[in-house]
Amino acid sequence: MRCVHNDDDTSHRHEGVWGKGVMGGNMEFKAYLAEVEAFTREELIPNEERVERLGYVPNDLVHRIAELRLFAISIPETYGGLGLNQEQQVLLTIAFTRASAVFRARFSTTIGLCSQAILDFGTETQKRKYLPAMAEGRCTGAFSLTEPDYGSDAASLETTAVRDGAGYVLNGTKRYITNAPDADMFLVMARTGGPGAGGVSAFAVDAGAPGLRTSTPFDMLGQRGSRVSEVYLEDCHVPAEALVGGEEGLGLKAALRGINHARTHVAATCVGQAKRLIGEAVHHARRRRQFGRAIGEHQLVQAMLADMRAETYAAETMVLDCARRFEQHPLPFADIACAKYFASEMVSRVADRAVQILGGQGYMAENAVARLYRDTRVFRIFEGTSQIQQQQIARAMLRQTPEEH
């Protein structure tokens, strides 16, 4: 599977699942959401153990995800997508992440980090090359920013891109890159100028480019069906047309566009995972009996369940509020950070309580709650650690006037 550009303009004029666009009305979207909910229940959840065993999402499920057009939810209809707004994307994310977050990881870098950077900062040629292929699931993107020595401090990255005749030569190593072993294009941040953010540019590098290779996937604590590896750029030659936007210095701006989109989706993912955990805990609390009655009748168990529900509801409200304001200019950066920070910390607390309610059963590796406990821990790390979110929130507060708080 490669990002093959179709010169037939009809490939860019999809009108949505029902012919006039999924956004033709609220009823159309509700029908689509119900379809995704059914897909999650009937196909994704039953395949969780299979994906855990294989260590990757198999092609038949990737095909079904693409067939259901989940790769297309964030891409405008002009480029073959569904043209959904951010609130609708969040609602869908909450629905499909009631299943293992590994499924979401298989297409998340494409619908968020990569496609949105190309959409907002790419040339028209780049948009038409990549976005229709992404929307159809023919092109998986890998967002290549983090390095062995630089993650949160992205403005200090060391990967270089040096002008060489009609193109650039890239050298460096990228670390912990989701979907790198399966990627058809890599959105690579590299230094073209001096120190700081202004010296960083973005490049759309096709898989198979000479000098680009990936490592064996890492063995991770959780999300074991998500393939994450290093990306090595060793005298990797790319044409000048690979420079995103055709202009140097746009790299971190493009990256932040994708990151803020992804942070909203991560917060929604935490909500979806929390709802699944609550469902597992409630089911157990109803059927498990101790001291002559269901454990759900014991007040201390009820207190844990109530806390799980209240915190999940708070996170859901936060992320939906951010999503409804996502088309604002400027973006509500601080509130997006708040939602990602709260939701990611919340789901870890919910997962811990779920294990506690299930007791020994919740600690067994084959149990869904044990897997979710491992899987959700990473949300406090990627797309900006909780500490980075705290820093960004506080800095925004310090810039505001008292009336704006």
- Extract low-pLDDT stretches: 5-22
State the secondary-structure class: alpha+beta
| Fraction in helix | 40-55%
Major sheet: 4 strands, antiparallel
Shape annotation: globular
> What is the H-and-E element order?
HHHHHHEEEEEEEHEEHHHH
Q: N-to-C terminal Cα separation, in Å?
A: 49 Å
Strand content: 5-15%
| Spatial strand arrangement across the major sheet | 2-3-7-6
SSE diagram, text form:
Blueprint: H1 26-44, H2 48-54, H3 59-67, H4 86-96, H5 101-121, H6 124-135, E1 141-144, E2 160-164, E3 167-178, E4 185-191, E5 200-206, E6 212-214, E7 228-239, H7 251-287, E8 289-290, E9 293-294, H8 299-324, H9 333-358, H10 368-376, H11 386-399
Parallel strand pairs: 1-4
Antiparallel strand pairs: 2-3, 3-7, 4-5, 6-7, 8-9
Helix pairs in contact: 1-4, 4-7, 4-8, 5-6, 5-7, 7-8, 7-9, 7-10, 8-9, 9-10, 9-11
Quick description:
With 405 residues, this protein is an alpha+beta fold.
Features:
alpha+beta; 4-stranded antiparallel sheet; 11 helices; globular
Describe this structure in words.
By secondary structure, the chain is α+β, with helices and mostly antiparallel strands. The chain is 47% helix and 13% strand. Strands 2-3-7-6 form a four-stranded antiparallel beta sheet, covered by helices on one side. Strands 1-4-5 form a three-stranded mixed beta sheet. Strands 8-9 form a two-stranded antiparallel sheet. Helix 7 (251-287) runs antiparallel to helix 8 (299-324) and helix 9 (333-358) packs antiparallel against helix 11. The termini are far apart. The model is unreliable at 5-22 (pLDDT under 50).
